[in-house]
């Protein structure tokens, strides 16, 4: 596996893991496990940061003159990152709403 392929695979894995933690956070907020929810959101952001760093590595390679082939795998990796960013942003809003609803139901 080339360096570029390894970076692309890391981008896919870290983006997917970030999304998984965000969806786990949604499950936990629905169960009123706010500490678990917040911990999973923190983990989601950590993996999102790792994925973003992989994307930055690809941009740096290209900026340094290394040719980056636009392959299906590369496009798939970019799609994973953008989906993770979008879904995590939306899930955070849903989680905040769920916390509010839970507090209103409790009263």
From TrEMBL:
<dbReference type="InterPro" id="IPR036542">
    <property type="entry name" value="PTS_IIA_lac/cel_sf"/>
</dbReference>
<keyword id="KW-0598">Phosphotransferase system</keyword>
<dbReference type="GO" id="GO:0009401">
    <property type="term" value="P:phosphoenolpyruvate-dependent sugar phosphotransferase system"/>
</dbReference>
<feature type="active site" description="Tele-phosphohistidine intermediate">
    <location>
        <position position="76"/>
    </location>
</feature>
<keyword id="KW-0813">Transport</keyword>
<keyword id="KW-0762">Sugar transport</keyword>
<feature type="modified residue" description="Phosphohistidine; by HPr">
    <location>
        <position position="76"/>
    </location>
</feature>
<keyword id="KW-0460">Magnesium</keyword>
<keyword id="KW-0808">Transferase</keyword>
<dbReference type="GO" id="GO:0046872">
    <property type="term" value="F:metal ion binding"/>
</dbReference>
<keyword id="KW-0479">Metal-binding</keyword>
<dbReference type="Pfam" id="PF02255">
    <property type="entry name" value="PTS_IIA"/>
</dbReference>
<protein>
    <submittedName>
        <fullName>PTS lactose/cellobiose transporter subunit IIA</fullName>
    </submittedName>
</protein>
<dbReference type="InterPro" id="IPR003188">
    <property type="entry name" value="PTS_IIA_lac/cel"/>
</dbReference>
<dbReference type="GO" id="GO:0016740">
    <property type="term" value="F:transferase activity"/>
</dbReference>
<feature type="binding site">
    <location>
        <position position="79"/>
    </location>
    <ligand>
        <name>Mg(2+)</name>
    </ligand>
</feature>
